[in-house]
């Protein structure tokens, strides 16, 4: 298949948008699957108690499965909850179980409560390095829509934010509040955090409205907005019920190709890459 540029350091993204149903989870799992299809090692962290990313990636996530809850609350090592995801080599997931719905409250009284996911990721990256294991090129964190302590943990753990924007009425509503919140996190908890990527989703180029929303987003965020857009596609919405991303469910569909294009752009935008396609490096 295609071969994407490998970043010199793990790039850690969180997917953010305070609205539900705008395509956060769909974007998290399909961008991850597309990057892995391009030859990279990718980990999706499901940080939403609803566990939709876990479902879409075909991860075990019934109650009691070692999960991101154990990592955040019980100091379980991240490596102990990671599972291979569906059948794409290089794609892994850390699942969310129903336990995670209690974590928001449990976190309130914990020490360094905003830093728990960041520390777990850092420990894992260091451990893999010391053991000579291949590192993750990308870690993508899927979040609930609310700005609670789970989402704050993701903002502290990540360096880059992807905002999916649905090309419909009120698409930009709430966006300035989201950007303010990201500024607050940057000021107080994570100076490296920035919105690197905006992805237009559920885009129907035949409607004036979608084109207008897209133009407005590009005007406000000319550098951040990817050229690739994700069309509204039945195949994309069907895939999770088979425990698959659209990359395996229907690899030739317009949705799969759109996510591949978007992932390729993201890979090419890495400020620091080895300049080597992933497949070429793997042979070393
Ligand atoms: P969020 O995580 O922001 O709540 P989801 O990713 O779960 O949003 O998407 C909300 C719904 O929209 C889901 O049913 C999903 O399958 C569907 N969906 C997402 N992206 C697309 C798309 N490009 N085309 C069609 N349906 C989509
Ligand atoms: Mg979701």
From TrEMBL:
The UniProt record lists the AAA domain at 11-194
Q: Which CDD domains match?
A: ParAB_family
Pfam families (UniProt xref): AAA_31 (PF13614)
Alphabetized InterPro entries for the sequence: AAA_dom, DNA_Partitioning_ATPase, P-loop_NTPase
Q: What is this protein called?
A: ParA family protein
Q: Which domain of life is it from?
A: Bacteria
Q: Which Gene3D superfamilies match?
A: P-loop containing nucleotide triphosphate hydrolases
